[in-house]
Amino acid sequence: MSSFDRIVIIFNPQSTGDAPRSAEELRDELAGRLPTMPLELCPTHHAGHARELAREAAGTGCPLLVSVSGDGGYNEVVNGVMDAGNDRAVCAVRGAGNANDHRRTTREGPLADAIVAGDVRRIDLLRLTVGSGTGAQTRYAHSYIGVGLTPVVAVDLEKGGKGSWKEIVSVVRAFSRFRPFPIRLEDGRRRTIDSLLFANIAEMAKYATLSEDGRPDDGRFEVITQRRTGKLRVLATAVRAATRGLGRQPGATHYSFTTLAPMPLQLDGELLELHADTRVAVDIAPRALATIF
To answer: I need a labelling partner for 237 at 20 to 30 A (CA). Which of 13, 72, 176, 231 fits?
Structure first.
């Protein structure tokens, strides 16, 4: 195998889903199948540590960085690799924690088999820019960026578990907490939005289907918009996402707006707080990440 020169497995010892055991099992299996490959287990110790570990490990050579985590932990590893700026670094994820939509929707077989085969591919990322000028901050998402109701419903669905009644209860719970928020689009028009989601994958939280044909390697993201339409219609849309899916959605490579009130934003499940009068831009970063499914 020549795709990478070492394997670094990053995991959170405090993660739900027994990430330490899963990381050790993967290490042991790879040690048996790749006896000459250097292997390292790297536990995290605080929030943001996975990004630091990934940035350091990705700085040289051709490493494979495996995140044993949920979507949020993998987001940190991906951003660490992007910080390092090393195109030869490869990422992979083994699902642990509350949810890993990215692994579930891209999985093609056992991860260890793909690692042994060295089957490296490139996928797109979502690039989020918050602010403008020299004060702008950039982060990447492997799966989705969202504001408003839809991503929060998805998180609540994961907590609620599978089953039609549990799904509906989760949707109603999330729905009751949120109100429409105002934004100004790039062309100056104002909109009041219940939900705005930019998706690099077609599904979230196991049961919410966002689009029919979204893929992480098609050079675009799907834009799922719910304008202010009244509570009953918003609730019906959220329930449809949890049960039947939302159908075909428009694609884009760039979308920007300015917040007109404070609001939360979710980035692969991680929560960011946006201030009023903040410019937000989402762009596709085509083939930005080398990965193994």
So the answer is: 72
Looking at residue 115, what is its pLDDT? 95
End-of-domain residue from the set 119, 140, 173: 119
What is the maximum alpha-carbon separation in the chain? 61
Out of 94, 119, 144, a domain closes at: 119
> Are residues 290 and 122 in contact, defined by beta-carbon separation less than 8 angstroms?
yes
Q: What is the pLDDT of residue 113?
A: 94
* Owning domain of residue 109: 6-119
Residue 292 inside a domain? The answer is no
Question: Mean of the pLDDT values across residues 225-248?
Answer: 61
CA 285 to chain centre: 14
**What pTM did the predictor assign?**
0.84
Confidence of residue 162 (pLDDT cuts 50, 70, 90): very low
Same domain, 84 and 133: no
Tokens of 269: 């499940």
CA distance 101 to 167: 17
pLDDT at 273 over 50: yes
43 pLDDT higher than 70: yes
Q: Please tell me the predicted confidence (pLDDT) of residue 147.
A: 87
| Angle subtended at Cα 122 by Cα 120 and Cα 127, rounded to the nearest 5 degrees | 145
* Length, in residues, of the chain: 293
